Amino acid sequence: MRRILVGVLSALALVLVSVVPALADSSQNVTVTGTPLYLSISNTPNTWTINGITGSGLIEPNTTYYAKGSTNETTAPSATVLGTECYFTVTNGTGATTCDLTVTWGAFTGGGADMTNSDAGTNGATTYGAYCWYEGMTYANKVIVKSTGSDEMYSTGLAADASLKWGVEIKTRTDAWTSGTSSTSTLTITATAH
To answer: What is the pTM of this model?
Structure first.
């Protein structure tokens, strides 16, 4: 009896194998690409040589200079800042995320005009004060530029592939310079996602 049952099961197994069709692929892969919005700004020009009041190219103590892109950098911008009164242009990259902009400015070192940022917009014996502004802004609302932790200069979101003209001003230290050699500092504009 066992032999007959084993033979019947073997025959049944053969029949089952022969009637099951070959299986097609039961899954497919799909490549998914995510292109990120990113932070990317550029600024031109990337240098500013402060112009002297006499046109000599030498700065004086206790004097305010404006990055206006003209030969006369000793007069303030208009009540509503004009594009022609802005020395710098910051551009948000194509495909970049909308961003807000903050300006910081460190110490002048390496020469006779050394001075640190007061972080208050005012000058003193060894400190300078600084502010920034942009095209279309009410000049009276200019923003204090600090060495770190400045408030945002532009907080309404600069769109991708858009540009903004902007400028800064510095009121030099009150004490006289100790030598005639140039000091340098770094002015930084930073983007953060809006």
So the answer is: 0.82
Strands (E), the chain: 41-44, 64-66, 88-92, 99-105, 116-117, 127-134, 143-144, 152-158, 163-171, 187-193
For 70, residues 6+ apart whose C-beta sits below 8 A from its C-beta are 84, 85
- Tokens in use for 75? 């007069």
Query: Residues 6 or more apart from 86 whose CB is under 8 A from it?
Result: 67, 68, 69, 77, 133, 134, 135, 165, 166, 167
115-170 pLDDT, tens per residue? Answer: 999 999 999 999 999 999 999 999 999 999 999 999 999 999 999 999 999 999 99
Q: What residue ranges do the domains of the chain occupy?
A: 41-193
